[in-house]
Amino acid sequence: MKDVFARLASDFLSTIVFLVIYLVTDNIILATSLAVAGAIAQVIYARVKGKALGYMTYASLALVIVLGTATILTQDPRFVLAKPSIAHFAIGAIMLKPGWMLRYMPARVTDVIPEYVTAAGYAWAVLMFVLGAGTIAVAWTGDLKLWAFYVSVVAVGAKIVAFAIQYVIFRIIITSRLRAAARA
């Protein structure tokens, strides 16, 4: 569980840096510049440490650089504000692969209810697409404070609620199946 949150924090580090710097300074250029620099530094650090970097890491870096540069050159924050939506769409597309979630589940879950894990994977994909569309809608307004609220509270909150619902449902189904198997 701790590893999953560490991966998520790593994946969204540039967005977190952007958000914090912007909220503290109210300076879009500074926040964007530091987010781009942070993304580059993160990849360099991982390479120096010999960590293998996946496709999503490089795709995220490219998005940060391209959209960050567009934001800096045009001084229009909507470019960088769109980045989380692109990430949500890309992650949603990856989540459409059947069984993607199995590797993140404990053995008890994958042994007892693998078909529910696959269904939950599709539900997560839908959630990512909805959050991506919401991010674009909010970014289009150009209201940075609304966007900051959306990506830091609404999007994160939706994922926490979805995780909690999934956890409870999985527990109920696993308990039910194990009791039924014990009776049989």
UniProtKB/TrEMBL annotation:
Q: Does the keyword Secreted apply?
A: no
The record's Pfam families line, in alphabetical order, gives: IspA (PF04279)
- Matching InterPro entries: YciB (IPR006008)
User: What keywords tag this UniProt record?
Assistant: Cell membrane, Membrane, Transmembrane, Transmembrane helix
The coiled-coil regions, if any, are: none
Superkingdom to which the source organism belongs: Bacteria
Bilayer-crossing regions? 12-40, 52-73, 85-104, 116-141, 147-170
Report whether ATP-binding shows up as a keyword of the record: no
The name on file for this protein is Intracellular septation protein
Instruction: State the organism of origin.
Output: Bradyrhizobium iriomotense
